[in-house]
Amino acid sequence: MKNANKIDIEKKKAEIGSREKGFEESIRGELIKELRQPANKLPKRVKFILEAQRVGCDFEDSKRQEQYYKRAREFFNKGSLGEKVKL
Fold this sequence. Notes:
This protein is mostly helical. It has helices at residues 2-35, 44-78.
């Protein structure tokens, strides 16, 4: 009984390995096909990566700008000489 289970497990491992290899070959083929497209178009995957990177940079810029405005608001609320501005 144990030998039968071992054989089943080995068969399943081999099947999974062949599926993984098939996926890798498929992905590699799609990427090569996209890279061979005309030079004026970026592959979809590259576009996605660049877009994600841009969003990350935009977030960091917005975060820095918000910190700048927050410090400026605090400065103006305190007044230029440390006194409250009377209106």
